[in-house]
Amino acid sequence: VSLLKVGWYNAVLQPAFHLPYPDDTLAFVVLSTPSMFDKALKPFVNKERLKIIRDPVDQCISHHLSRMKEKFPDQRVDVMFDYEMLPSRKPKFLAQTAAHVAGAAYYYQRKDVKLDPWGKKKIFGVCIHPKYGGWFAIRGLLIFPDIQVPFLEQPSPVDCVSTEEKRIELLEQFNFHWQDGRYRDIIEVKERYSEEQKAYFATPPAERLRLLGLSQ
């Protein structure tokens, strides 16, 4: 987890995406590391297999963050998951922006490239973690509405893809060759997904339950 103030997030977004809390409200962005698959998902599936009715990863994350909420019985904790949508079909929060402003991972976007080679093509940005490269995911946002932290100082994310050439390579790979996963290794990483985990995430979502030995 990395902590942030809601105001840092709201400051860089259009009002339509603002979170409805005071600027000094405490929040945490939650990442999953490569070891999540073995340490959290597989034990969860083994224990809860009869209760799994939708995406197992989403249910696993929901399970663990709900348990975390129970550790703070005297606090209000609002949880937003990366997969949740508003009725307008907009995401409840922009995960990559939250990770960037919290200093958790650097959100590389088209504007980070000075000599843009893409013309009118749509180019999506991607977060890179200084330790895990692209081998991680942003899973949720925890907001503590009753805790104000005006003294918190904002950290800068680590700019680990610092050359123009590498940034172009990263955005090219992510936008046009994302299936092969090369963008994840744009930097030297300390840990990456296991072969089993790669196979799981490469499997179409509709077939993942069968891969885990669960009936459809």
From TrEMBL:
Quote a single Gene Ontology cellular component term: cytoplasm
Among InterPro entries, the record links this protein to: MMACHC
User: Any idea where this protein resides?
Assistant: Cytoplasm
What is catalyzed by this enzyme? 2 cob(II)alamin-[cyanocobalamin reductase] + 2 hydrogen cyanide + NADP(+) = 2 cyanocob(III)alamin + 2 apo-[cyanocobalamin reductase] + NADPH + H(+); apo-[alkylcobalamin reductase] + methylcob(III)alamin + glutathione = S-methyl glutathione + cob(I)alamin-[alkylcobalamin reductase] + H(+); apo-[alkylcobalamin reductase] + an R-cob(III)alamin + glutathione = cob(I)alamin-[alkylcobalamin reductase] + an S-substituted glutathione + H(+); apo-[alkylcobalamin reductase] + adenosylcob(III)alamin + glutathione = S-adenosylglutathione + cob(I)alamin-[alkylcobalamin reductase] + H(+)
This enzyme's EC code(s):
1.16.1.6, 2.5.1.151
Q: Does the keyword NADP apply?
A: yes
Per its record, how is this protein called by name? Cyanocobalamin reductase / alkylcobalamin dealkylase
Which organism encodes this protein? Answer: Rhipidura dahli
